[in-house]
Design brief:
By secondary structure, this protein is α/β, with parallel strands linked by helices. The chain has two domains: 262 residues, FAD/NAD(P)-binding domain, CATH 3.50.50; 146 residues, no CATH class. Helix content is 32%, strand content 16%. The chain has a six-stranded antiparallel sheet with strand order 10-11-12-13-9-14. A hairpin with a 6-residue loop joins β12 and β13. The longest helix is centred in the C-terminal third of the chain and has 22 residues. Bound molecules: flavin-adenine dinucleotide (FAD). Flavin-adenine dinucleotide binds next to α1, β2, β15 and α10.
Length: 427
C-alpha cells in the first residue's frame, strides 16, 4: 500500500499522480470511471500567447514538465492563438500513461467516505466540481459547507450534417489558420437568433442558489443582458472576413474543430441550459445548420466548491486534517487551473513524504501565475469566488504593453524553480 491516496483521476488528479510518480513516490489512485482526464465541455485549453495569463500559465507548467500540458500539445488540433485538443485522444493518452506508470496503482472504486482511506498518511481529494453522494456530504461537513454555481456545456454537431457552402474557414487571430468554421449572420439573422434565445424554454434549476460563473454564462443569459451582448462577445465578427463578400459580417457563429478527423464541431460560446428541443429548433435556423445532427446537446451542471482561503492550510489541506483538496472543487475555475493545482500538490506532497524542506522553501516564485493560483487559494480574502488565471492574481501591476515581457520573465523564474526542485528532490 502506498502512503498517499488520491480520489479522482480528472485533470487535477491525473496531473498530481503522474507528477508525484516522477518524484519517485507511489500513489493509490481511486477513480470510479475508466476514462481519465476527460475535458467535459470545450476542447480548448485557451490562449497560447505569452501576452495572456492562460498562455503564461501553460508555459510555466511546461517548464515544470507538466505531463498533462505536454500531452495536450501532442494532441493539438491547433496551437494558433489557442490550444485546442482532440479530447478523446488526449484522455486516451493520459489514461494509458497512468495505467502504465508502475508507481500509480489505479483502483476502480467510488470512495464514499474518507474513513475508507484512514490508513493512508495523506489523502488527496480531486473529486471535481460534480462530486456527490456521501463523499460530498463529508467534504461539506469538514469544510463548513459548499458554495455552488451553475455551469453549462455547449452542443457539438456532426460534420457530415453541415452545409459548409454557407460557412467559411478562418481563425480570427491567425490569418493563415483555418481551424474554425464560421457562420456569417446578417443583422436580421442575428436579431432573430437573439429573440429566439431570449424567449426559448430553459431547464428549471432545482436550487435556490442560481449563480452562474460570470466568465462562462449560458448563451441565453448573455442574450438577456442586452441585444448586442453576443455581437460584442462570442458572436463577434472581429477579424473574420467572409470570402464571399470580402467584408466582416454583422455577426459570426464559430464552430471549433473537435477531433483530428474533423468529424465534429463544437459551437463556441453556446453553453446552454435551453431544453433540448429548443436547442435543436434554434440552432437549425442558422445558415448551413438546417439539417444539423448533434453529437451532444448542451446541459447544465451544478458545480460545488469550498471556501479555500478559509478552510485550507498552506499545503492545500483542510486545516487540522491530512486531506488536501485540489482542482475545481478548491475554487479555481478552468482546465489549466485544475492542472496547476495538481502540479502544486505533487510538489507539496513529495516534500511532505520525503521530509526534506520547509514548506516556504518549495513554493513557486512570486509574480508567476502558478504562485498567483496558490495565493488565490490560500491567502484570506473578503470575498472568495471561482477564478480563472489572470493578471489580477499576481502581486506586480503589469501594464498591457508589458505583458509579454512579464510572461517571459515569469517562465524563466519557473525554469529556475524547476531546476531548484530537481536539485532538492532528485528522484
Ligand atoms: C459543466 C461544466 C463545464 C465546464 N466547462 C469548462 C470549459 O469549457 N473549460 C474549462 O476550462 N473548464 C470548464 N469547466 C471547469 C473545470 O475546468 C472542469 O470541471 C475540470 O474538469 C475540473 O477538473 P478537476 O480535476 O477538478 O475535476 P474533474 O475533471 O471533474 O475530475 C474529477 C474526477 O473525480 C472522479 N470522482 C468523483 N467522485 C469520486 C469518488 N467518490 N470516488 C472516485 N472517483 C471520483 C470523477 O469520476 C472524475 O474523474 C467546466 C465544468 C463543468 C462542471
Amino acid at each position: 500500500m502506498a502512503e498517499v491516496a488520491l480520489i479522482g483521476l480528472g485533470l487535477a488528479g491525473s496531473e498530481f499522480a503522474l507528477k508525484l510518480a516522477s518524484f519517485g513516490i507511489e500513489v493509490d489512485a481511486f477513480e470510479k470511471q475508466d476514462k481519465f482526464a476527460y475535458l467535459i465541455c470545450s476542447n480548448s485549453l485557451r490562449g497560447t500567447s505569452l501576452k495572456t495569463a492562460a498562455g503564461i500559465l501553460k508555459a510555466e507548467l511546461l517548464a515544470l514538465s507538466s505531463p498533462l500540458i505536454t500531452t495536450a500539445y501532442e494532441c493539438a488540433i491547433s496551437k494558433e492563438g489557442a490550444l485546442t485538443v482532440d479530447r478523446e485522444v488526449f484522455s486516451q493518452k493520459i489514461t494509458a500513461m497512468i495505467n502504465e506508470t508502475p508507481l500509480i496503482n489505479v483502483i476502480k472504486k467510488e470512495i464514499t467516505s474518507f474513513e475508507e482511506l484512514s490508513s493512508y498518511k495523506l489523502i488527496i481529494c480531486a473529486a471535481g466540481p460534480l462530486v456527490d453522494g456521501k463523499l460530498a456530504e463529508e467534504i461539506k461537513k469538514l469544510s463548513g459547507g459548499f458554495f455552488h454555481f451553475w455551469d453549462a456545456i455547449a452542443p457539438v454537431v456532426w460534420d457530415y450534417s453541415l452545409d459548409k457552402s454557407k460557412m467559411f474557414f478562418a481563425n480570427r487571430h491567425v490569418p493563415h489558420a483555418k481551424d474554425y468554421l464560421n457562420i456569417p449572420l446578417t443583422e436580421e439573422e442575428y436579431f432573430s437568433l437573439v429573440e429566439d434565445l431570449k424567449s426559448a424554454e430553459t431547464v428549471e434549476l432545482h436550487d435556490h442558489d442560481k449563480n452562474f460563473f460570470e466568465g462562462c454564462l449560458p448563451i441565453e443569459e448573455m442574450a438577456k443582458r442586452g441585444d448586442l451582448t453576443l455581437k460584442y462577445g462570442p458572436l463577434s465578427p472581429k477579424g473574420l472576413v467572409d470570402p464571399k463578400t470580402g467584408k466582416e459580417p454583422f455577426a459570426v457563429v464559430q464552430l471549433r474543430q473537435e477531433d483530428f478527423e474533423q468529424k465534429a464541431w463544437g459551437l463556441v460560446g453556446f453553453q446552454t441550459r435551453l431544453k433540448w428541443g429548443e436547442q435543436k429548433r434554434i440552432l437549425r435556423k442558422l445558415p448551413g445548420m438546417e439539417k444539423a445532427e448533434f453529437v451532444r446537446l448542451g446541459v447544465i451542471h451544478r458545480n460545488s466548491y469550498i471556501n479555500a482561503p478559509k478552510v485550507l492550510d498552506e499545503k492545500l489541506q483542510i486545516k487540522g486534517t491530512n486531506i488536501a483538496i485540489l482542482g475545481q472543487l478548491s475554487g479555481i475555475e478552468g482546465y489549466i487551473e485544475a492542472i496547476a493545482t495538481g502540479m502544486l500538490a505533487s510538489i507539496f506532497t513529495a516534500n511532505s513524504i520525503k521530509k526534506r524542506f520547509l514548506h516556504e522553501e518549495i513554493l513557486p516564485p512570486q509574480n508567476t501565475m502558478l504562485r498567483g493560483i496558490y495565493e488565490w487559494l490560500t491567502v484570506p480574502k473578503k470575498k472568495f469566488y471561482p477564478m480563472n488565471v489572470s493578471f489580477a492574481l499576481i502581486k506586480a501591476k503589469v501594464k498591457r504593453k508589458n505583458r509579454e515581457e512579464f510572461g517571459k520573465s515569469s517562465v524563466n523564474k519557473i525554469k529556475e524553480y524547476a531546476a531548484y526542485l530537481k536539485k532538492l528532490m532528485p528522484t
